[in-house]
Design goal:
The protein has two domains: about 1-35; about 40-125, no CATH class. It has helices spanning about 15-30, 40-55, 65-75, 75-85, 110-125, and strands at about 65, 100, 105-110. Strands 1-3-2 form a three-stranded antiparallel β-sheet. α2 (about 40-55) crosses α3 (about 65-75). By secondary structure, it is mainly alpha-helical.
């Protein structure tokens, strides 16, 4: 069916190899019961965040970044910054203070975050 001059592009039963590969991958995708993630980067980021939390449990002196802090305390970004800001009506002096890592980067010491979580647990039950 297709005439090619190179041996790499020889047809298989009259169908080009790339077309066979595309058709077989489409068939596999159709047979799959679970839907593919909409955004692979989000999936990778979620797995990365989970593994970062798991690896930092070993070293409480580790410095974590904002996304990990948000996952640990279960707050939104704006809530965290409201808890840090003394000018906010939601200021919490017990909330862990950020540590400067560079000109524009900050992090939080994991031990301080765990201490704050314990403070919330004991404060809420009392």
């Amino acid at each position: 069916m297709f005439q090619t001059s190179s041996p790499q592009m020889a047809s298989i039963n009259g169908v080009m190899p790339t077309a066979v590969a595309l058709a077989s991958s489409a068939a596999v995708a159709l047979r799959s019961k679970s839907p593919a993630p909409a955004n692979t980067q989000q999936t990778v980021a979620a797995l990365s965040k989970t593994s970062e939390i798991a690896s930092t449990k070993k070293d409480p002196k580790a410095i974590i970044r904002l996304n990990t802090l948000l996952a640990l305390v279960g707050m939104s970004r704006s809530t965290v910054y409201n808890r840090i800001s003394p000018n906010s009506k939601y200021y919490d002096p017990m909330f862990p203070k950020p540590v400067r890592l560079g000109a524009k980067a900050v992090g939080w010491i994991l031990a301080d975050v765990y201490a704050y979580i314990e403070h919330l647990r004991h404060g809420a039950s009392a």
